[in-house]
Every structure is written in structure tokens, then in C-alpha cells.
């Protein structure tokens, strides 16, 4: 039995689509590494963190970014509407919000 998806529009913090921040090296504070959150090589709907530091595993910069990045409206990607937000301002971080399309 086939089910048709209904496309709904949900609002999410723009940080959930693309975010980046620089963090200092622990060895040399003048050296900065950039952590990016956005689409991953897993496909256009796979999002995650990456860092340009030389670490081969999940680095401390990414661990710090996971705590600092706003994730308001992340539930919208799962088809849940966290709350209405017509003013286009994220209620959590004060940044911009974006409208995404979700199949429910």
C-alpha cells in the first residue's frame, strides 16, 4: 500500500542548515581552526560537523561546537513543528530562521 507524502513548511534556526565558528588551537592560540555544521558527503539531507584541524577523530573543537550551536527547530526536520515563529527570528539565539520543506 503506497502512501503519499504531504509537504509542509516548517521554520528552523538557520544554524541547522549552515553554521561555522573558529576555535583556537590548544597548542598555539594564534592558530584558529574552523568548525562547520552543514551538509555532509552522506548526501544532501545528511548534516553534521566537520573541523579543519589535524585530529583524526572527533576533536575538542567539534565537541565544543556541539554545545554552542543553536538547534532550535531541529524537530522540524523530523516533521514536528516546535512552535510557530512568524517573526523570522530564532527565539533561542536571536539569529535568522529559514523555512524548510518536510514530507510528513
Q: How would you describe this structure to a colleague?
A:
The protein is mainly beta. It has one domain (7-103). Helix content is 9%, strand content 37%. The chain is built from one helix and five strands; from the N terminus they run E-E-E-E-H-E. The protein has one helix spanning 60-68; strands spanning 7-13, 19-24, 32-40, 43-51, 97-103. The strands form two sheets. It has a three-stranded antiparallel β-sheet with strand order 2-3-4, with helices on one face. A two-stranded antiparallel sheet has the order 1-5. A hairpin with a 7-residue loop joins strand 2 (19-24) and strand 3. The radius of gyration is 16 Å and the shape is elongated. The model has no long low-confidence stretch (mean pLDDT 84).
Number of distinct helices: 1
| Residue share in helix | under 10%
Number of domains as seen in the coordinates: 1
Spatially, the strands of the biggest sheet line up as 2-3-4
Structural class: mainly beta
Series of secondary-structure elements, N-terminal to C-terminal: EEEEHE
The whole-angstrom Rg is: 16 Å
Using the alpha-carbon principal axes, give the shape: elongated
Number of strands: 5
Amino acid at each position: 500500500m503506497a502512501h503519499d507524502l504531504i509537504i509542509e513548511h516548517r521554520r528552523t534556526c538557520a544554524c541547522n542548515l549552515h553554521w561555522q565558528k573558529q576555535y583556537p588551537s590548544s597548542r598555539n592560540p594564534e592558530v584558529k581552526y574552523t568548525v562547520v555544521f552543514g551538509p555532509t558527503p552522506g548526501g544532501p539531507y545528511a548534516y553534521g560537523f566537520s573541523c579543519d584541524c589535524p585530529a583524526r577523530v572527533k576533536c575538542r573543537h567539534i565537541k565544543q561546537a556541539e554545545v554552542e550551536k543553536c538547534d532550535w527547530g531541529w524537530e522540524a526536520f523530523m516533521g514536528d513543528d516546535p512552535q510557530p515563529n512568524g517573526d523570522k527570528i530564532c527565539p533561542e539565539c536571536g539569529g535568522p530562521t529559514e523555512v524548510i520543506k518536510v514530507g510528513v
